[in-house]
Fold these 2 entries.
Entry 1:
Amino acid sequence: MELETVKDRVIGVDISYSQTTIAVVDVRGNIIAKTSFCTEEFPEISGFVTKLAESIVELAEDNGGFLSIRSVGVSSPSGNFKTGCIENSPNMKWKGVIPMAAMLRDRLGIAVALGNDSHTMALGEHVYGSAHGMRDFVLVTLGHGLGNAVFNRGKIILGAHGFGGEMGHSCVVDGGRLCGCGNHGCLEAYCAAKGVVQTAKELMEESGEESLMTIYPNLTPKNITECCNKGDKLAIETYRRTGHILGIAMANIAALVDPQAIIITGGISKAGKWLLEPAKQSFDEHCFRNIRGKVKITSSTLDSRERDVLGASALAWEVEEYSLFK
């Protein structure tokens, strides 16, 4: 009797707004090989999926062969694990409901699981990072958008429809700024990249004070952080206001789920103390007193690119195995 060959590798895919990263990962979480391409070069989803499938096959063939791959895990903004679709992303170029897992499975002939990028980041933190050993924690990711994932008793809370943990689209200012999702006053509109920049511009217009931020024709959160490091008062106030709102939101989610820790990650978290100190202060001011002082607030220590593909690979191991090549 011929024994069946055990497939001991998966593919982890991280789709971000600017770059898509693909990795071959073994059963111990070692990244065997990795490649990437520019997401923005593919405004049409069909062209993107074709490029992604070709890149996966090429990387796998060059590193042990495609037949050694058990399954694929994909991390994407607005990804829904329950449906396998990217659904109405407010920040990606592809609009509507995109059956990404099914499209990729049809091209590759093996099982594909798709999850929300914040959920897969949380998986990466849980298995390999700051949340290792924790059963109850919250991940908040600050970048182009504001993502959030809640781990409860060692499992991601997905909710009835797969959208559990969308803290970025909770309302923090009634009738406030227009968010990319179409609602007004969302947390994302104040604490994600565009929101931080808008706060800086509003402060400069209101105060009339001189600021180093005016030298940047296309101001970014990174530029604002650079100005903070040089002592710019308006830049520092930008992150103080951002942190204050973020702290309130984190206090609200902590009151609901009572986590061991809240882990902050994403490009904007690189503002460091300028953002985290006012956020922690605001959190303490607004936190339910019975859990005050018990919830750890920290930032991720993992390399984000590696964590995100590792989180996607963890998703791949959980999907039921399927192959056209058996």
Entry 2:
Amino acid sequence: MVKITDVARHAGVSPSTVSYALSGKRPISEETRRRVEAAARELGYRPHAGARALASSRSNVLALVVPLRTGIHVPVVMQFAVSVVTTARRYDHDVLLLTQEEGDDGLRRVADSALVDALIVMDVQLDDPRLPLLRSLDRPSVMIGFPAEADGLTCIDLDFKAAGEACVEHLARLGHRVVALVGSPPEVYVRQTAFAQRVVQGFTAAADRGRLASSVHPCEAAPAAAREVAEQLLREQPALTGVVVHNEAILEPLIDAFEGLGLRVPADLSITAICPDELAENLRVPVTSVALPSAEVGSRAVELLMKKLDQKSVPEATLLPPRMTERASTAPRNAP
């Protein structure tokens, strides 16, 4: 096992200097700190976790709060979680995953226990009941998502409003005049989940600006529900030629349902989505989509938290612009 004395010898400094450089307990010149960190990396030195916590008054553990509520698409949530965990490890931190729906009580229990140094909070609602507690905690936090009132909080996410707008604007450029949003399960909207609400805002705003006929349809994450929505849309909007999907679980079943009802994609119906790239590009009909940047959001959330732990200033709001990739599911409208 590599010892602190081995790092000191390799870097040409004393063991106490290594300790100060790695813990930040005393000021060390930038050149010396970099030399010590390089030596530690080269030798594979890992401070003993208990000694490290005593020296720094930190646990080197982050909490990731992900209430697994109904309507959540777990595979996408896990993409965020994996990104948080792998990035935290680069900063020598572990991650405690909290999945129970405990609200303030769960957050306070963890924060008061000294188990974690800081928190990342997901599944944010517009009027999130956890906000007063997060504002009062003496531990830093980052929210993946934007509540309606975000003052005094650090938030990061895809700009979902702009993503909804981008999907509609793409369809409008192709000549589509009647569009629909097939959205998240109904319970997601009942909870006022922020990202889902922002997609609706963007979709509706862009459709209104372009004077497109539009409608919004929540959809359960099941193939039977996708079939019901497809039938409802064609019954209520027979001139429909453009669809935006914000529900990863029903994207492929919805395409199958429309084609089963006699509509070819994209000859008769163009479809766009907000979803992970790997899903959109591997469907039977590759779908034009705005990427869900789970890896980038998770990584940057950890980076923001590390800066806050080091008493560095960070922006309160980080909105990632939508990135659309055109694929085979969209085409110019077939004018009658």
